[in-house]
């Protein structure tokens, strides 16, 4: 196909902790992810075009593929596959994935594809917020990050195959990142079950609503990465307020063991009280 402009849904995948592995280990992780994603697509009944990016990839799905399958059923099946693999893998080779979904026009130019939608998906999947959410939820296999446009056209409009706005937490890319301030919607998955993250690691700006709930707070740029063991930080509960969180180092993650409050970044939003780890429960 040459010089064709067509609407697509873009699904970006990225492997957590990829750089900590040897080259052969990285190859095995990529092969396993591609196989599991292919199996998930077959189960859901969709097919797409893979554009490899090393530690993950970008899949392009044509506009005739129902977005409800991609937003709800595809992450469910992928999380089931990831969980099954990880149960028999050594802990250091567990495969945990960030998954971002956006949509837009893709320009097919010879063997190359060019698209702002791909660039935007890359920014969301590479953002620190997805890394932080998985680090705070060690039992999760996958974090799903929907662009604001995708969320509005599927979940918020009740066209997502069962997912509801309350299943998501609004987050933003932090200062210094490409696309800083970009709004996305996060949902954690573990073995086919999903939940809204209890930890808002990059808080939504004032005025961002999730259904009838209004969520506000400062946008912060935490410095947690996925290049290391996933921390079992406490989470849970709804935002109880915003402003400086005591004891936290700038850009770091601080858990107040006396109160069960987890805050990320300087002047962070404090989330929950007397909480345990993020709990993944069926819905």
From TrEMBL:
Signal peptide location: none
Disordered as annotated region, ranges: 207-254
Bias (Acidic residues): 214-226
InterPro entries: Nucleotide_cyclase
Gly residues bias locations: 229-251
Source domain of life: Bacteria
The name this protein goes by in its record: Guanylate cyclase domain-containing protein
Organism: Pseudofrankia inefficax (strain DSM 45817 / CECT 9037 / DDB 130130 / EuI1c)
Source species taxonomy: Bacteria, Bacillati, Actinomycetota, Actinomycetes, Frankiales
């Amino acid at each position: 196909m040459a010089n064709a402009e067509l609407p697509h849904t873009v699904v970006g995948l990225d492997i957590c902790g990829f750089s900590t592995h040897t080259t052969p280990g990285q190859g095995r992780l990529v092969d396993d992810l591609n196989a599991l994603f292919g199996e998930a697509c077959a189960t859901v009944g969709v097919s797409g075009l893979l554009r490899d990016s090393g530690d993950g990839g970008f899949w392009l799905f044509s506009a005739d593929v129902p977005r409800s399958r991609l937003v709800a059923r595809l992450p469910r099946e992928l999380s089931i596959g990831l969980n099954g693999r990880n149960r028999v893998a050594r802990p250091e080779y567990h495969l945990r994935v960030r998954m971002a979904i956006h949509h837009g026009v893709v320009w097919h130019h010879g063997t190359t594809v060019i698209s702002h939608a791909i660039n935007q998906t890359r920014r969301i999947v590479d953002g620190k917020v997805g890394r932080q959410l998985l680090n705070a939820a060690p039992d999760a296999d996958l974090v799903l990050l929907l662009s604001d446009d995708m969320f509005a056209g599927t979940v918020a409009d009740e066209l997502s195959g069962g997912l509801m706005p309350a299943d998501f937490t609004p987050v933003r890319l932090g200062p210094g990142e490409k696309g800083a301030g970009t709004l996305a919607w996060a949902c954690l998955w573990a073995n086919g079950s999903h939940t809204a993250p209890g930890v808002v690691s990059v808080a939504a700006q004032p005025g961002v609503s999730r259904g009838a709930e209004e969520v506000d707070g400062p946008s912060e740029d935490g410095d947690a990465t996925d290049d290391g063991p996933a921390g079992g930080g406490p989470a849970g509960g709804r935002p109880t307020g915003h402003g400086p969180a005591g004891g936290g180092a700038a850009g770091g993650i601080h858990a107040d063991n006396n109160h069960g409050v987890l805050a990320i970044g300087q002047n962070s939003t404090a989330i929950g009280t007397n909480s345990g780890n993020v709990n993944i429960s069926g819905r």
